[in-house]
Amino acid sequence: MIFPKVKLVSSEGEEFSVDVQIATASTLIRNMIEDVGIDDPIPLPNVRGDVLRKVLDYCEHHVDNPSKEIPKPLRTNTLSTVVSEWDEEFVNIQQEMLFEIMLAANYMDIKPLLDLTCAKVATMIKGKKAEEIRQIFNIENDFTPEEEAAVREENKWCEDT
């Protein structure tokens, strides 16, 4: 079956000709198509071309193969127990690209992709101490030792569980 195409334009002006059926996995694009049709290109000023390509790969894969709902809260740090092998491989990427895809999924309103990227981040931090999380995400500790001790004391009940 042949579907009509829509042109999507990345932040750098790169054009992607995409089946409407694939593009409308995004609520943002679906709404824009309903408002203005498919004759004019749809600009996506918040999404780089390399990121849009990955997002479209995800949408194309799932057009006839809906992703399963990811349970929340995530009770495991093993992503393979809650998503397909394809989805697990899809988010097994460099951290910067993972975050860019997460931002694009949020902007484009693609809930299953946003849930997948958030679940990946959740598996990265689940069961980790604050210092380990800072190392994973390259976050500088801006607390003084006194402030950190006060926060630990205030939230001691969290660590007792």
UniProtKB/TrEMBL annotation:
InterPro entries: SKP1, SKP1-like, SKP1-like_dim_sf, SKP1/BTB/POZ_sf, Skp1_comp_dimer, Skp1_comp_POZ. Transmembrane segments: none annotated. The keyword Transcription regulation does not apply. SUPFAM superfamilies: POZ domain, Skp1 dimerisation domain-like. Residues 4-63 form the SKP1 component POZ domain. One of its GO terms (biological process) is ubiquitin-dependent protein catabolic process. Keywords: Ubl conjugation pathway. Residues 111-158 form the SKP1 component dimerisation domain. The keyword Repeat does not apply. Pathway: Protein modification; protein ubiquitination. CDD domains: BTB_POZ_SKP1. Belongs to the SKP1 family. PANTHER family: SKP1. This is Suppressor of kinetochore protein 1. It comes from Cryptosporidium xiaoi.
